[in-house]
Design brief:
This protein has 436 residues and is mostly beta strands. It contains 5 helices and 30 strands. Strands 20-19-18-30-23 form a 5-stranded mixed beta sheet, with no helix packed on it. A 4-stranded antiparallel beta sheet has the order 1-2-5-4, with no helix packed on it. It has a 4-stranded antiparallel beta sheet with strand order 9-11-14-13, with no helix packed on it. The longest helix is centred in the N-terminal third of the chain and has 14 residues. The chain is elongated and about 110 Å long. The two termini are 82 Å apart.
């Protein structure tokens, strides 16, 4: 406030020989009746702007006052009282008009959930997943600009599944897919759920495949437990493949929830391709497009025989196979695929060395010296590719799971996906997703 002192500046232009008393009276009258027109001044006189005391000090209130400080406001997600909360979704706390000083989230047993507070105190979020069927208590404290505290309490409840399922990474033969392993260019990865999945489309969206370099690929469901993934074309040597199954907290249909997230990765090795020709009776092998050797073989004799569950093919079915297992020795018997050992075409269990399996229903490249005379000229097997000892051992030792074997010029139906013939299915059919 302006301090009003001597008002003589208002009379600087006055002339005359009036007495001081007269001047004072006139000045007072003038001040009460006139307004100031001083440049840059207000439209009021100095007396109107203030209410000075007799000693000239100001006692008028300020023309403006500071607004009140807003109290801190705390919000959280999920909101207080929320039920059927996805336990995989982080709990978040935010504050307006202040900063958080502490946040504590505890389960019913009193265990504190880990979390991270922003450096500026503006927010907090949980950093560990919650559990199914749990009640959590939230206590958050914040301060406004003047240090006044605000406290928020809340309760959330996570969803209770009807059932849970765990995904496992497998080869198409059902063995575990080994993390960090090297596989062939035709490798087919499988995800197997330990419970039937009602909503396979929902489950598929939670399965992510990342490849370097990038390749286009798709999932194909063989049943309500199992999905296979393959690229549109064979992998290139050196490709890395990473698969994530982020199923925890997700409803896969009918109240079936994912038990836990899981992931794996593998590498693609050298390009190994074998072409087995039923007419020339030769298996020719290339590594990285370089010819390695030609192995005389005796393949399936063809035709059908009656088995326990219907007709059994004796062809080595045409199409694309991949190596799915190595057994040394493999125990083989006709009973294993429904042909009684005492039937005309049956045979009792026997141990066969250096057996490289290429179909789920039991086709191998294997040693069988008893057919060496037929290898290279006549097909006499039940469907396997008979080789001599040297060639069977060489292929066994130099092939890996995922290597490609193509059978040509053979009779019978093309190998099907359920038999391990994933690459025989045209891409236009594969991308339809199979049994979904």
């Amino acid at each position: 406030m302006q301090r009003v002192g001597n008002t003589g500046r208002g009379f600087a232009s006055w002339q005359g020989r009036t007495t001081a008393a007269t001047v004072s009276i006139v000045a007072l009258i003038g001040l009460s009746a006139c307004t100031s027109s001083t440049k840059g001044g207000t439209s009021q006189s100095p007396v109107a702007q203030s209410s000075s005391g007799v000693d000239g000090s100001s006692s008028a209130p300020s023309s403006s006052s500071a607004p009140p400080v807003a109290a801190a406001v705390i919000t959280s997600l999920p909101a207080d009282g929320a039920k059927t909360v996805n336990p995989a979704t982080p709990v978040t706390v935010n504050v307006a008009n202040g900063k958080l000083t502490s946040v504590k989230l505890t389960n019913s047993a009193g265990k504190t959930v880990s979390g991270a507070l922003a450096a500026d105190g503006s927010s907090w979020h949980s950093t560990e997943v919650l559990g199914y069927s749990k009640i959590y208590q939230l206590t958050a404290t914040a301060q406004d600009a003047e240090g006044r505290p605000t406290v928020k309490h809340g309760t959330i409840t996570t969803v209770t599944p009807n059932n849970q399922t765990m995904p496992y990474f497998k080869t198409i033969y059902g063995t575990d897919l080994q993390r960090g392993a090297t596989y062939g260019v035709g490798m087919i990865a499988e995800v197997q759920f330990d419970e039937p999945v009602p909503d396979r489309r929902a489950a598929e969206k939670l399965l992510t495949v990342t490849t370097t370099p990038h390749v286009s690929g798709a999932w194909y469901w063989t049943d309500d437990h199992t999905a296979h993934w393959r690229p549109m074309t064979f992998y290139k040597t050196g490709t890395t493949v990473h698969i994530d199954a982020k199923v925890y907290g997700a409803n896969l249909g009918g109240g079936l929830y994912g038990q836990s997230d899981t992931s794996t990765s593998f590498k693609i090795g050298a390009k190994h391709v074998a072409i087995a020709d039923a007419k020339t009776h030769q298996v020719k092998v290339w590594f990285n497009n370089k010819f390695q050797r030609s192995m005389p073989t005796s393949m399936g004799q063809g035709g059908y025989v009656a088995g326990k569950n219907g007709q059994i093919s004796l062809w080595t079915m045409p199409g694309y196979y991949t190596v799915i297992n190595h057994e040394n020795p493999a125990t083989m018997s006709s009973d294993s695929y429904g042909l009684p050992a005492n039937s005309p075409y049956g045979y009792a269990p026997e141990k066969v060395p250096y057996a490289t399996k290429i179909s789920i229903d039991g086709i191998y490249l294997h040693e069988l010296d008893t057919t060496v005379n037929q290898q290279g000229n006549t097909n006499v097997s039940h469907g396997c590719l008979n080789l001599n000892y040297t060639n069977a051992k060489w292929y066994y030792e130099n092939s890996v799971v995922g290597d490609v074997v193509k059978v040509i010029n053979s009779g019978g139906p093309t190998i099907q996906v359920f038999q391990g013939g994933d690459w025989s299915l045209p891409w236009t059919q594969w991308v339809k997703g199979g049994n979904v």
